[in-house]
């Protein structure tokens, strides 16, 4: 979970999508239309927690319908607090995966049957490793899989690289790719220019699913705490938490 710009993300920019006229026009898509019955779903998260921010509601819906699920965490998220003595990388490399376990538990995920792959790639350095990352992802995909990952133009270098690498892997294997925006919500200049509104679909969430998703996000204590000693604000800005209250998630098909 990294903002496209640390300074912008941590100040809490305006939620431009909330006032974008295109938002109300996005068609609703059913879960069955998105994921065929019985299909395996693979969620590829650049950093621990991106799976909750991008599709925590979808994960709940998929779990209730007993779809086989696989989570691939590309990095351990240890570079989220650069220069911090409170949250050094060695501590975060342990803490952030633990936070993901708790977040998934709060979502009601079947941890006993969830296949979880940890990539071990270096956080905040994925663009330079795009080709080996794509090969790594392809190793864990099967034809007919439905893959959910970050949008390749999300505005964060790691998110974009994972989106591109996932697209290549899906094309090679024969899996279906869907992309989800996270930080693109907070980039005003992208409205009507870069956002692929024609590809956007809404997945409806009920109030209980929204509440569980928000509860899961609060499992990331490291991301809710900055480091006042070096003037580092929380990574998970309040504006991001407020956006998670929306009764839907957006998928680019």
Please give a quick description of this structure:
InterPro entries: GlcNAc_PI_deacetylase-related (IPR003737), LmbE-like_dom_sf (IPR024078). This is PIG-L domain-containing protein. It is built from nine helices and seven strands, in the order ααβαβαβαβαββαααβ.
SSE layout and pairing:
Layout: H1 6-11, H2 31-34, E1 41-45, H3 50-64, E2 69-75, H4 89-107, E3 115-121, H5 130-139, E4 146-150, H6 157-173, E5 176-180, E6 200-204, H7 207-217, H8 221-224, H9 238-243, E7 248-252
Parallel strand pairs: 1-2, 1-4, 2-3, 4-5
Antiparallel strand pairs: 6-7
Write up what this structure looks like:
- By secondary structure, the protein is of the alpha/beta class.
- The two termini are 22 Å apart.
- Strand 2, helix 4 and strand 3 form a beta-alpha-beta unit.
- The chain has a five-stranded parallel beta sheet with strand order 3-2-1-4-5, sandwiched between helices.
- Helix 3 packs across helix 7, helix 4 packs antiparallel against helix 7 and helix 5 packs across helix 6.
- The N terminus is likely disordered.
- The relative contact order is 0.22.
- It has a single domain, classed as Rossmann fold.
- Helices cover 36% and strands 15% of the residues.
- One of its GO terms (molecular function) is hydrolase activity, acting on carbon-nitrogen (but not peptide) bonds, in linear amides.
- It holds the Pfam family PIG-L.
- It comes from Pseudomonas palleroniana.
